[in-house]
Amino acid sequence: MITFKHVTKTYDGNIGLKDVSLNIDDGEFVFLVGPSGAGKSTFIKLIVKELDADEGEIHVGEYRVDKLSSREVPQLRRKVGMVFQDFRLLPKKTVFENVAFAMEILHKSPKTIRRRVPEVLKMVGIEDKRDRYPQELSAGEQQRVAIARAIVNNPRVVIADEPTGNLDPKTADDIMHLLDTINMSGTTVVMVTHAKDIVNRWNKRVVAIEHGRIVRDGFGSYGFREKTEKKGGRHHA
Amino acid sequence: MRRVFYNLKQALQQIGRNKGMSAASVFAITAMMLILGLFFIISVNVNVFTEVVKSDYDTVEVYLKDSTTETQAAQIMEELKSLKGVSKVTYRTKDQAMKIMKKRWGDSGYLLNSLGSNPLPNSVLVKVSNLSTANTVNKTAVKNKGVENTTYYKQTIDKVTKITNTIQIGALVIMLFLVVVSVVVVSNTIKLTVFARAREIEIMKVVGATNWFIRGPFLVEGIVIGIISALISSGITYLFYGKIVARAGVKMMTMLGSPLVPAGYLCGNLVVIFLALGIGIGACGSIISMRRFLDA
């Protein structure tokens, strides 16, 4: 589903990613972990072509991302649902409208929108909040709206950038369950996270990035020691 | 169709939320269009005036010597008629010439009666289609022994043409300048709404909206501002120019011998020009203001 082949990305001489090769299969659930500035964000931005790689090949589904023309970028992004730590909802739109917005952009008919949005809201468990505004909701509920928006167009991949970063442990767990459910239905999920406890609890594939390189790729625990001990180097599962 | 409505609704919302700046741009563009309209009116009228002058003075008068016989005159006429670009050759006797002169002098015509003998020569009037033909006619006629001299108003026409061209080029430069200023004004107004909706635009991009989808409402916003300005300017111009034509049209006719272009006709054209311009300015302004936002 997502394939990186020897991808390098530098910013003004600083390394974002260095010679990264990785394959994520269709339907996988992958945790992307690593300290701040390790290259996780770069990784995500490369997937949706917010950034261009300096070297290497990037494949997402049938798209060859590094060769994609700017005209084709929207097509790619429709296949990739994005969820962010700060939710990124439109404050002046209701829950329903926030989710419907993603469909309007694809020129879906009002009829389709009216049918599909409640369906998704129900799936994420906030169908009773459809006419509320984001600021009237709890953080967890807002993240659910964001997830609903990410999946409403049936993307093949959902990329969640620290989706639980602003949530208490209980709510974070709920969101994890939701992402897991989405994954069960066949959607590939890539989740960037710092939350060691979550990674350790859910036995999923973990890709660890440090200094722009993949330092570990395997199932199981987070695998990083505390930040102060980070200098110790690479840790293998 | 749904898309058109979507864009229009969004655009009107944006204008509504941003009334002050939208009104300011409408004002600025209207002012620009009014000045532009003024230049357009002047330039059209000058043009008409030149045409009138040209048609008045498209005749070379060839004066014949008194000694020239009618047969010689006929030969001269034949010769001139055979020249390329000559449309009509007529003979005018000295008596006819006197009559015309008296008519021109109007009330003072009786003064000419005291002259005794008619000092005016017989003449041949050669109507030419353009100035270069007039030159040839002139040269050919002067060579003939039966011809006293010739007059034609080359210099006058040249001068008028030169002035007209200068006025028109000047007007064009000023118009272009005004158009550029308007585009900048509109793009700044729209930039404000773009900034206000930066978040929304970012989210649109994340969800996979095409650049044209994102641009749509802003484009329509610019175009709506342009159209409103065009309609206001057309109305004002029609009102004022109509009044001017009604009041001064006749005076101008007698003074310059050239009519003012009728308000209805001119403004009809002006509406089209204003609308095209308004739409163009609005569209360019919004595309420019969005450029940086849609780079990525």
Total number of beta strands of chain B = 4
Q: Count every beta strand of chain A, where a strand is a DSSP E run of 2 or more residues.
A: 10
SS-based class of chain A: alpha/beta
Q: Order of strands side by side in the largest beta sheet of chain B? A: 2-3-1-4
Proportion of strand residues of chain A: 25-35%
Q: What's the average pLDDT of chain B? A: 81
Order of helices and strands of chain B: HHEHEHEHEHHHH
Derived from helix and strand composition plus strand pairing, the structural class of chain B reads alpha+beta
Q: Can you tell me about this structure?
A:
The complex is a heterodimer of chains A (237) and B (296). Chain A is α/β, with parallel strands linked by helices. Chain A is 31% helix and 27% strand. In chain A, the strands form 2 sheets. Chain A has a 6-stranded mixed sheet with strand order 6-7-8-3-9-10, sandwiched between helices. In chain A, strands 2-1-4-5 form a 4-stranded antiparallel sheet, with helices on one face. In chain A, helix 6 links the parallel strand 7 and strand 8. Chain B is built from 9 helices and 4 strands. In chain B, helix 2 runs antiparallel to helix 6 and helix 6 packs across helix 9. The model of chain B has no long low-confidence stretch (mean pLDDT 81). Chains A and B meet through helix 2 and helix 3 of A and helix 1 and helix 7 of B.
Write the SSE topology.
The complex is a heterodimer of chains A (237) and B (296).
Chain A: E1 2-11, E2 14-24, E3 29-33, H1 40-47, E4 55-60, E5 63-64, H2 73-78, E6 80-84, H3 95-104, H4 110-124, H5 139-151, E7 157-161, H6 169-184, E8 188-193, H7 196-201, E9 205-210, E10 213-219
Parallel strand pairs in A: 3-8, 3-9, 6-7, 7-8
Antiparallel strand pairs in A: 1-2, 1-4, 4-5, 9-10
Helix pairs in contact in A: 3-4, 3-5, 4-5, 5-6
Chain B: H1 2-17, H2 19-56, E1 59-64, H3 70-81, E2 86-92, H4 94-105, E3 123-128, H5 131-143, E4 147-151, H6 154-196, H7 198-207, H8 211-256, H9 263-290
Antiparallel strand pairs in B: 1-3, 1-4, 2-3
